[in-house]
């Protein structure tokens, strides 16, 4: 069984659309409380295609935002996305690896990372790398999901199985789709202080059609569906079982269906050296 | 395998303490937004030992609250609890079965039921019985948990197993510990309109010691622990496996542990006949 795939979110135009949909639908939920002062130096790491950058810019006019990603292709898409969505925004874009950030120590007042740690084999080491570029007293904001929080009606063992395959593929690629619950110990372990975790819960049913469409269908189910070929290629499941699981998952977005997911938003302070 | 036990929450003094702790810790979370006008006729069904009644009274001074439960013993405890906590409160106490409420149709402006449907074999029929006593335009508020939302660190298969035994015992007794996700279709199915469901998420870690103590330890773990004898008697598990599962669950309330649970709060309107 080969689960050693190179699956990472965000590397197709379909994925780009999905990540845009996700951020637009969840923006209020995820970005509430995140606004940086005019003139403050803010680093967004792993900005990807700019899905969150556009909300940082909107919520923190006047902040000096630097956005980095290790993928030049993603950065090009992020620039284009911002040019369309926030034409006047001045964002500094840099191609860089999170573990080798090209900035002196203490360069930033605030650091922001959304859906980044979940893809990294060494999230604790990543947090230490972020602390290096943060001034003492500066804040780090981290947002992560946790697939263990998924709950839906009608319940379906087959639907949970396809989600489990996505979790396994992400783990095989060195990531962790169950990371949200670990933010508190990870941040403490990396030397951050005043760690505060807040759950941000998505609930969708027929009375919230934009959440059903934007989150249940276009974000969550789309994300799971995107690993179909990898799951089959890795021998995790059969096409028939996969398709039955996805069909069951789609029922949660129809008629009487309900869907629940929790994100975890952490804010922590760099206490200094 | 005999899982046909008579397990119901609230029938021991330890349970009474547990339910009191639970309500006090969760009161802000669960009761936020629930305040009834002066003079309005409010029915609380399944008030049990009065754990929620005390908060209804506090948040709705001047409302005419009638609290019913089918257990005279619970009602006696509820009276005593209110007499201690809210000495001046005027609550009308009635022993009654939810399915045979001794009130004319349309007797109440508002009905409130917290952690009641989860114990009933026919929650849809129960909701219809509640709609009968509610005037057209009156509201029903229902709060239920859903054990499918449980998520913790450190993760543990054995801990999830003991929770699963509690779910199975509650199902065998005719209840459903996974009911929260179904509130939307249940309320619609019973003829209610304007159904709005809001998730109310509990998150506990070392930075929230009162939630760790009041919810993780004294509410959730205590509830699971209370079915130990039933689980062993039903042959669901061995004493050794049970104890290992509980020990793992306790780790989620220590040191780096984290714990997450979502309640679902529904408000719906009786559109009339």
UniProtKB/TrEMBL annotation, chains A, B:
The keyword Protein transport does not apply. GO terms for biological process: methylation. Residues 43-141 form the Methyltransferase type domain. Gene3D superfamilies: 6.10.140.1580, Vaccinia Virus protein VP39. It comes from the Bacteria. InterPro entries: Methyltransf_11, SAM-dependent_MTases_sf. GO terms for molecular function: methyltransferase activity. The keyword Methyltransferase applies. Keywords: Methyltransferase, Transferase. Pfam families: Methyltransf_11 (PF08241). This is Methyltransferase domain-containing protein. It comes from Streptomyces decoyicus. The lineage of its organism: Bacteria, Bacillati, Actinomycetota, Actinomycetes, Kitasatosporales.
